[in-house]
Amino acid sequence: MSGEVEISIRDERSRAPVVYDPWLLAAVLALLTLGLVMVYSSSAICAHEKTGDGFHYVIRQLVAAGVGLLAMALAMRIGYRKLARLAYPLLVFAVGLMVAVVLPGVGSTAGGATRWIRLGGFSVQPAEVAKVAWVLYLAYSLAKKREKVATFSVGFLPHVAIAGMLAFLCMLQPDFGSAVGLVFLLFVMLFAAGAKMSYLVGSVLVALPFAFHAVASSPYRMKRILAFLDPWHHRQGSGYQVAESLMSIGSGGLFGLGLGDGRQKLYFLPEAHTDFIFSIVGEELGLLGVATVIALYAVIVWRGVRASLAATEPFGTYLGLGLTALIAFQAVVNMAVAMGLLPTKGLTLPFVSYGGSSLVVMMGAAGVLLSVSGASARVAGVFRRALLEASG
Description:
By secondary structure, this protein is mainly α. It has one domain. Helices cover 70% and strands 3% of the residues. Strands 1-2-3 form a 3-stranded antiparallel sheet. Strand 1 and strand 2 form a beta hairpin. Helix 11 runs antiparallel to helix 12 and helix 11 runs parallel beside helix 13. The longest helix has 36 residues.
């Protein structure tokens, strides 16, 4: 009987249509749609003043959204299992981009940071590519070494060493937020894979002095910390963005001032369509808009974790958890910065903020996560049908 059930499952698996998680897909598309609307609302006046075209930024975002949708569809079509063979090449490619961006004459500088490589009329941010490449590599490596993940020399030290290299390359740009994000992803995935807590806690304690030195030795990072602690005291200086962001969110009330009627985007709040777009959501759509955005990210985390835990092999579980953690980390940090709960980090709000590299990469990551959910749902359905046939 068991042999007949196994054959039935194998046959059904080959014929079964792929069904992706509709909740996860709907949440991603809802955030993408909201992002396009808010990018236009928050950038139209600024774009008209700078370029003479109020649609300048939203058109570029629409192009990025189209490429992102193609990337998502391609990832869903290929399936996450076939991505395992790209773990090493993609990581090497991402490291190459991160090295290239800090070379003289290659990287493009804006706001005191060199984080972009310009290609024609568009730009690529290597750190965004590195985040997904890092998750893919960790998922593959941890799944391959799952019997030895708890060991220091095989499961812990090599991954920490690579994370240190990536963080160092981020700091050269400098991009402290992405460096913290890469390390955060490492610890989430090591914990999920079964690394010893003593190693994780010990490495945090060892890293704290280096993190303190990275902040204390940088005048602009110290200004951000002081602005975070008392933004109103530093309102005319380093605390200006945080103070204006708080005013933007606070003025929205329950229902907001109305879509397009926000005032802080009128040259009061810098980066209104990028890092602080959540503040414009709060001002124009109010508490209900803010709660809706948070709820959509909660759906992504819920369904992402659910699909990851239902995966049939460790690689799918680790990959799904890593991508879910990536989206959740950036969303939480961005919203916390906008509300003055964290120092400014320069991380975009996934699927919502203006930024082609971030949007395309995040849409591709969503496609991989949907692939994990589709495989999990298909296998669950196959087993249900097989059990019904066996019991009948």
